[in-house]
Amino acid sequence: MTTTRTARPKPITAEELLEMHSRGIKGELIRGVFCETMSANAKHGQVAMSLGGFIFAFVRPRRLGRVIGSDAGVFIERDPDTVREPDVAFISADSLPLDADPPGYLDIIPDLVAEIISPSNRPAEINDKTRMWLSHGVRIVLEVYPETREILVHCPGQRYVVLGEADTLDGGDVLPGFSIPVRDIFDP
Of 21, 88, 147, 173, which sees the most CB atoms within 10 A? Predict the structure, then answer.
């Protein structure tokens, strides 16, 4: 009897991913496997900018840290490499000093991550991404659903909370004092 083995492709490294991005190939790495990402719809972009803008307007004058968008890759694991692109993220100045200028992907886990959910996202994919962020130290993960105008707030070791349009999103212990009506995040 002859057994045929199919060779697994060699894992892609973060350095190779960065080079691919320079050629216009957009995607993330999940344990060395390239996962192409596609541009989302206008609503996705508007909600990401809206939420990111509200967080930025709170963070910047207080010099609390940095707010980053989806083109900023974040190292989560090495060997094999995992580099994810949160739609919006906050990294405290304690974790990444404001005068630091790190090259390449960020090697610091954000304190808060918001993922704007598109209709094409599968529930298992969303769940896996949320669990991955939480398991690597993110203190608040927001699943933002533009279609239903809801936000699921995940914190480690707690049951998630569902916020609707009539509710207010706050920054918890990550961004004390931050609050915004959920409705304002979804309205143009």
Answer: 88
Q: 128: helix, coil or strand?
A: helix
Q: Where are the domains of the chain?
A: 39-75+83-186
How would you classify the pairing of strands 88-92 and 65-69? antiparallel
pLDDT in tens, 89-123: 999 999 999 999 988 889 999 999 999 998 888 89
What's the pLDDT tens digit per position in 162-174?
Answer: 999 999 999 999 9
Q: Are 115 and 142 in contact (CB under 8 A)?
A: yes
Q: How far apart are CA 67 and CA 58, in angstroms?
A: 10
* pTM score: 0.89
What fold characterizes domain 39-75+83-186?
tt1808, chain A (3.90.1570)
3-state secondary structure 2-33: CCCCCCCCCCCCHHHHHHHHHCCCCEEEECCE
